[in-house]
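Structure first, sequence second, as always.
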């Protein structure tokens, strides 16, 4: 139990470091966590890595880790929502951004419309993509 508590504290620390924009320290903490089996729910370490790499401006690695997180747990709201925003915020042509976000927007509507942050993320996505509310799509 002691080791599990220590690992959970490290996950919390990595999340905090990302919120403080200390992305390199967060990545170092996450790398230390990866050596332990079953540290966190599936996809959580990859999600935090994606957030850290996104914060560092490394979009290639951010996308890689968002996709790994999504593959490991497609039912994790934050991964689905932030991956959709990642694609919506890209500099790719609008047609490609719409294509990349379409399955994620569909998942958000179908599976997460009751999530407490759905409306906030819906508004961000619609603004970035110039769409009507996700609840109407």
């Amino acid at each position: 139990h002691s080791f599990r508590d220590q690992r959970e504290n490290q996950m919390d620390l990595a999340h905090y470091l990302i919120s403080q924009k200390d992305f390199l320290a967060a990545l170092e903490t996450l790398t230390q966590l990866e050596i332990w089996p079953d540290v966190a729910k599936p996809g959580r370490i990859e999600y935090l890595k994606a957030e850290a790499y996104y914060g560092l401006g490394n979009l290639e690695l951010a996308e890689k880790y968002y996709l790994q997180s999504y593959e490991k747990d497609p039912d994790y709201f934050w991964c689905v929502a932030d991956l959709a925003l990642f694609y919506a915020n890209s500099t790719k042509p609008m047609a490609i951004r719409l294509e990349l976000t379409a399955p994620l927007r569909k998942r958000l509507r179908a599976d997460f419309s009751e999530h407490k942050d759905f409306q906030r993320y819906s508004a961000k996505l619609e603004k970035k993509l110039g769409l009507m509310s996700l609840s109407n799509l």
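Margin note: Residues 7 and 33 are 7 Å apart (CA to CA).
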